[in-house]
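Q: I'm writing up a methods section and want to include an example of the input and output format. Could you take the sequence below and give the corresponding predicted structure tokens, formatted cleanly so I can copy it straight into the document?
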Amino acid sequence: MIIVGAGPTGLMLAAELRLAGVRPLVLERQPQPRDTPKAGGLGGQILQLLRYRGLLERFEAACTGPVPAPRFPFGGVHLDFTQLPDPPMHALPLPQQLLERLLGERAGELGVDLRRGHEVTGVSQDDDAVTVDVRGPDGPYRTSTRYLVGCDGARSRIRDWAGIPFPGTTYPEVNRLAQVTLPDTVTVLGNGDLDVPGFGAIRAGFTRTDHGLLGVGSSPGARSVSLYTIEDETTEYDDDVPMTLAELQDSVHRVLGAHLPLAGSTRLSRFTFKARQAERYREGRILIAGDAAHLFPATGVALNAGMLDAVNLAWKLAADLRGTAPAGLLDTYHAERHMAGARTLLHTRAQVALRRGHDAAAEALREVFTELLADEQPLRRMGALVAGTDIRYPMPGTRLHPLAGTFAPDLTLHTDRGITSVAELMHPARPVLLDLAGRPELRQTASDWRPLVDVHTAKTDDRPADALLIRPDGHVAWAAALDEPADSATPPLREALSAWFGTP
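A: Here is the clean output for your methods example:
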């Protein structure tokens, strides 16, 4: 089993495969981890998944600053969850270089074979295997594997060699994002605005001009602020060439028409926006995930989507490699994650429409959208959409419980061994049947699937169902309604166990 690419998606996939008992080989063409700043944080559903693996506290401890208030940009306006006691969206200030280091450490602890400086130069496949040509530090070599997963980014050669189309749109925007320090000559006012000598106030939030957009995020009295510019340009930039502070200042000057003094920076990144999605995530024995499978024209969602691809794929690949996968299990990776990617593409394309318009009609659209977000229900709906927590995978069967296909709620569980939770039960990344109502007939049905499925009995306050069958990726495969009769609950449970974990 070979993974190409040691970015967040590839490293997450490798760790998940190790939890499932598979020993993947990770090939990364770069000899050392890259220092080029890319994503500046992690947010959305993946944070809950990390908690379900027992990793969230470790990631939180590594954050480079305080966890920001739950307020997120959306197409030139903001989703402001600060007044909600339980925001639907959270984020961690965790630069991608640090994220990759943490994921690499986790993969190393689990025994993943990661080879840096090994560039894949060719791939071919037949019905039985994938043949991989590699150029390593000691010269070229050839190896083969039952499956290969391309986690090699937007310009994925694995995707191209597999012949997977990658249609979509490239926008003429150049985005520059930075965390900078201000000299003493610039004053941060009490409302977060910047007072610039010779110019006046630059207001916090977004400022639109005829030449682009400037975003400012600051706290009163702080000397470090975030800056964000968007311009339409025809220049093609090499993603591996870092942005400089002078380049950022030039961009601010073009957008604003004024010079903004800057003393230094702790983060500088530049990126362009594309809206693309692979037509299929699998071609024979070659699969793709992360940026190789989808590109979104907005910030803050790509890591979430890519790492969730990895978690969805890992347990299915492992079952196939073990020989326990039911027919068609691996194909559900494309069905489920392509749907999730399309959902993310939907809201990020909507952000393009919101932010790119500069006429009176576009301003009216943003104003109406902002008014809608003043109400709690649409605000929560948008938060779930951006976080990816509104995804409900299609499940086999009829008369499905409302929880079927959704991410399992983290219930507090009272057992004979003490208090635990759904999150703690999911640390080993194994399927779980959770009996919440003392249903021995359901436990007996699941016993035919031991040792593939862990069975637990517990009680919980405000139980949402009599029983939950939870997949390793945290999604509910089946649930029994409250007080559902045995003759009604048992056959669908057996059907779900067979559909996801094979015939016992």
